[in-house]
Design goal:
The complex is a heterodimer. Chain A has helices spanning 2-19, 40-54, 68-77, 92-97, 111-114, 143-148, 160-171, 190-200, 218-232, 239-247, 258-265, 305-315, 318-328, 347-357, 369-384, 390-410, and strands spanning 28-32, 58-62, 84-88, 122-123, 126-127, 130-136, 138-142, 178-183, 234-237, 251-256, 273-276, 289-298, 360-361. Chain A is α/β, with parallel strands linked by helices. Chain A folds into 2 domains: 26-135 and 292-361, 3-Layer(aba) Sandwich (D-Maltodextrin-Binding Protein, domain 2), CATH 3.40.190; 138-277 and 368-410, D-Maltodextrin-Binding Protein, domain 2 (3-Layer(aba) Sandwich). By secondary structure, chain B is mainly alpha-helical. Chain B has 12 helices and 2 strands; from the N terminus they run E-E-H-H-H-H-H-H-H-H-H-H-H-H. Chain B has helices at residues 11-38, 56-62, 65-96, 103-115, 118-129, 134-141, 158-183, 187-195, 200-228, 232-237, 249-259, 263-292, and strands at residues 5-6, 9-10. In chain B, strands 1-2 form a two-stranded antiparallel ribbon. In chain B, strand 1 and strand 2 form a beta hairpin. Chain B is globular and about 75 Å long. Classes of the chains: A alpha/beta, B mainly alpha. Chain A binds chain B through residues 1, 3-4, 7, 69-70, 73-74, 76-77, 94-95, 97-100, 176, 184-187, 235-237, 241, 370-371, 374, 381-382, 385, 387, and chain B through 3-4, 11-12, 14-15, 44-48, 130-132, 149-150, 152-153, 155, 238-243, 255, 258-261.
């Protein structure tokens, strides 16, 4: 028995020796999502420049979008986890409400004036996240198909009626040609396609005290009916396949972001295309788009919060913002002082994205957004598959989201 | 080896067994007990909020249409794939067990799908099932009907499409098990039967199938458990859609527990799955025992 006890003690000592690391040498652990070969070297470069500027070490951890949300939640819920984390804009409220993020409100100084789009980073009037990368969606149009459908070369759809009519005319061009590319049966994407139309029709997701969603309103119905009409005059597929179809010249219109420009410019296209801002409901109105973004947060349990906040400041400096936007192919730098330059061939495209970001909105800030989003997508899907009328689907969404919102309102 | 006795074991035995025992306790027994305890709470992962709510999660689950749909889909998946997988596996096993030229080649070809990553297979099948994909083209060429929106986007065809892929992928593995069972049947039995004038059908009925019975029941249990745990195919191909037509119990547990972080609710669903599998496996094991007596 003595030998057994001695063996257990020895094992415990070995484990202790392996796990103990002097706190002073502990690096700042930064978890981020950029693993593609165009961007990852820039991440490493920015971390290295921070190390040489501050004597702090940075340890990078890579996440993927398929399971990053779960990994972050599990890490934070243990009371440990990384010091700095990249979050999608629609996750910030969820993590802020759980009390796991450091309140950055009093540590930002001039940063609040230099960076854009703070809304998703603010929860209950306190700042928990710093914007790091911004992006929006615009309307990609196939000029060649428009010409085949009888439109003059200068035609640009500016209203919903224009877009619907052009989709109709393209959709009848052939069996393997589609007017509009719309999303369905794809979680976490469908709502991003519907909300821009809802916002453009002056819809507001929540009522004033966020106890009720307002999809069952006229704005909700008009926008859903319009989305259904577009879907009926096109192809319903996953976003990646819609983009493949567009890249093959088989879809007239698709709503997408900067990444599609990069993809299109890397290949020899058998057609001409252009981008334009989201169409408005009526002539002279404003078409609203969906803005997404990447935000940086600091773990409340960080052993070195000052250095973590310093890393946030470093990453959003104009020089680093320029490096990062250039690597990601973004047209919308997060820092208003960043000198943005693109080659002349893409200047018009960049201008469209920059114009659109001014008329873009982010996911409503709510800790239960993930659950609300699921109900919203389920409702839209019911209408798309003709299981319910638009109004029934939207009323169902309002009904099912109400208990969730009221639970949070009571807290 | 000497040592102090603890019950039937000496301390040295326990020391030798400790790596396995520690793994069992930490990674098997503890999670099972923890998940059982969690299923009676409303534990929220992020906030850490945790209070005992009795059987509320279980009551809520049975009135949750998504969960009910998930249970039904899982049962349809299991019942719909099991017979096909087993029949195809037996037929292929009998085929490749004969003295044919390129026998090893055929065995390898049929087994090949089982060694390819499930994610890779699911991605390839997503392309095959897509609008304008090869399967649509094939059906169109022979004048058969197909869902124009693609197999995975139709409420009626999404689950059968995943089931077909699963049968294709699993058959080779079970074929190999049946080949092993076939090779253990003494050749003398076939020789004697031939001398008695038994034809191929009679030899199959009187010798081959009875000798395959233990393996058949083993495959039945194994495949049932695997079918109840279907997840990767759904995660990669449909995310439970369209209209929850491919929602399965494990995917439901994942969505609730690891996406919405309703750990208590997800744990309750996982425990129902555990009970379902345990019950069906117990029935099948009983069958095995009866057949062996």
């Amino acid at each position: 028995m003595k030998r057994l006890l001695a063996a257990i003690c020895l094992l415990a000592l070995i484990l202790y020796a392996c796990s103990s690391t002097p706190k002073s040498d502990a690096p700042i652990v930064w978890w981020q999502f950029w693993t593609n070969p165009e961007v990852r070297p820039v991440i490493t470069q920015m971390a290295a420049s921070f190390e040489s500027a501050t004597q702090n070490k940075v340890q990078l951890g890579d996440l993927t979008w398929s399971d990053g949300h779960e990994k972050i939640a599990i890490a934070l819920s243990t009371g440990g986890g990384p010091d700095v984390i990249e979050l999608g804009s629609d996750w910030v409220a969820e993590f802020a409400a759980s009390g796991r993020l450091l309140d950055l409100t009093d540590q930002l100084g001039g940063l609040r004036d230099s960076l854009l789009m703070w809304e998703p980073g603010v929860y209950q009037e306190r700042v928990y996240a710093v914007p790091w990368m911004l992006g929006t969606r615009v309307l990609f149009c196939n000029r060649t198909l428009l010409t085949q459908a009888g439109y003059p070369p200068e035609f640009v759809p500016t209203t919903w009626a224009d877009l619907l009519e052009a989709s109709r005319r393209i959709d009848v061009l052939g069996e393997d040609v589609f007017g509009f590319g719309s999303n369905s049966a794809e979680r976490h994407r469908l709502y991003k396609k519907y909300l821009p139309f809802f916002w453009s029709a002056d819809g507001e997701v929540f009522n004033a005290n966020a106890t009720q969603t307002q999809f069952g309103t006229v704005a909700g119905r008009v926008s859903l009916d319009f989305y259904l009409l577009l879907s009926a005059n096109g192809i319903v597929e996953t976003q990646s396949r819609i983009e493949e179809y567009f890249s093959a010249g088989k879809v007239g219109f698709v709503i997408s972001g900067e990444w599609l420009v990069g993809k299109l410019n890397r290949s020899e296209l058998p057609f001409e295309y252009f981008v334009t801002v989201m169409p408005s409901v009526e002539p002279g109105g404003t078409g609203i788009s969906f803005a997404g973004g990447e935000y940086l947060v600091v773990n409340k349990s960080s052993q070195n919060p000052d250095a973590a906040v310093a890393l946030l400041r470093h990453l959003t400096l104009p020089a680093n913002d320029q490096l990062f936007t250039s690597a990601t192919g973004s047209y919308t730098p997060v820092n208003r002082f960043t000198a943005f330059a693109t080659d002349s061939a893409l200047a018009v495209t960049a201008a469209v994205f920059q114009r659109q970001i001014g008329n873009s909105r982010t996911t409503p800030v709510h800790p239960a957004w993930v659950a609300i989003e699921e109900i919203l997508e389920r409702g839209i899907e019911q209408a798309l598959y003709k299981k319910m009328s638009s109004q029934e689907a939207l009323d169902m969404i309002d009904r099912e989201t109400a208990p969730i919102l009221q639970k949070y309102a009571r807290r | 080896m000497r040592g102090v006795s603890v019950g039937r074991f000496r301390s040295s035995d326990l020391l030798m067994l400790s790596p396995w025992l520690v793994t069992l306790l930490l990674f098997w027994l503890f999670p099972i007990i923890a998940s059982l305890v969690l299923s009676f709470t409303d534990y929220q992962l992020l906030s850490g909020h945790n209070s005992f709510i009795g059987v509320d999660n279980f009551i809520a689950l049975f009135s949750d249409p998504t969960f009910v749909r998930a249970v039904l889909n899982t049962l349809v998946f299991t019942v719909g794939t099991l017979p096909f997988t087993i029949i195809f596996a037996i037929v292929l096993a009998i085929f490749v067990n004969r003295n044919l030229p390129f026998k090893t080649f055929f065995q390898s070809v049929y087994f090949f799908p089982s060694i390819v990553s499930l994610v890779v297979v699911a991605l390839i099948y997503s392309t095959l099932y897509a609008r304008g994909g090869y399967i649509q083209m094939l059906l169109s060429a022979v004048g058969l009907a197909y869902p124009p929106e693609g197999f995975l986007f139709s409420e009626n065809t999404a689950l059968p499409a995943i089931m077909a892929m699963d049968v294709w992928m699993s058959t080779g593995y079970y074929m190999l098990l049946f080949v092993a069972a076939l090779q253990s049947i003494p050749q003398e039995l076939y020789d004697a039967a031939s001398l008695e004038g038994a034809g191929a059908w009679h030899r199959l009925k009187a010798i081959t199938l009875p000798h395959l019975k233990p393996m058949l029941l083993f495959v039945l249990v194994l495949n049932t458990i695997k079918s109840f745990q279907i997840f990767v195919e759904v995660f990669v191909m449909t995310k439970g859609g369209p209209l929850n037509s491919t929602m399965t119990i494990v995917y439901f547990v994942y969505e609730e527990g690891l996406h919405k972080f309703n750990i208590g609710y997800g744990a309750a669903a996982a425990n129902i799955l555990f009970l379902l599998i345990a019950l069906i496996a117990w029935v099948e094991m009983k069958l095995v025992q009866e057949r062996q007596i």
